[in-house]
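Worked example 2:
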Amino acid sequence: MTVPPGRRERKKAATRQKIADTALRLFLERGYEKVGIRDVAAEADVAVTTLFSHFASKEALVFEQDDDFEQRLTQAVTGRAPHEPLIPVLRREIQSLVRHCTADSATPIWRMIDESPALRAYEESMRLRHAESLATAIAADPDLSQTTTASRTIARFVIDAYSLAREAPRPDAALDEIFRMIEAAWAVTSKNFTGAGL
C-alpha cells in the first residue's frame, strides 16, 4: 500500500509544477532563447534558488517529466509479473509515451525543441541516460539472464523506437514495425545466452 504524500511533499510538487507550467508558457509565448531563468522565477513568484532546487538547468524546465518517464521505463522491467515477457511490456510503455508526446497539445513544444540546438542536445543526452537506466534494470533482472552488452543494446533499441515513432507520420504503425525487429533481436540474444550456458 502506497502512503499518500504529506503536506510538505504536496507543496513541493505544486511549486515544481507551477514553475514548469510558467516556464513553458513563457517559452512558447516569447521564444525559448529570449526567456531567462530570472524571467521564469519572477513570473512564477519564486526565488532563482528555489527554481534551481527543482530544476538543474533551463533545458530541464522543458522536459519536466523526464524523471517520471525514466522511472516508468525501469518500472516496466522491475514491476512486471513473474515470467511476463519483457518486450511486450516495454512496447506498451513506449506506446504510451509516444501517444503522450504526439498529442496535438505537444506539437508546439516539439517545434520549439527542434528549433533549439540546446534543447535538441539536452533531449539526446536525456535519451542516452534513459537507455542506461533501462539497461541497468534489464541486466539486474535474474529472470532475463542477459549480458551487459545485450541489455544495453536492447535498451538503446527501445529508446530509439520512441524517437523514431514520435517523428513518424503513423506512430503506431512505426512502433509495430520497430518492435517486430526488437522482438527478433531479443529472441536471438536470449537463445545465444541460453545456448552459451552462462
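Confidence is low (pLDDT under 50) at residues 194-198. The radius of gyration is 19 Å.
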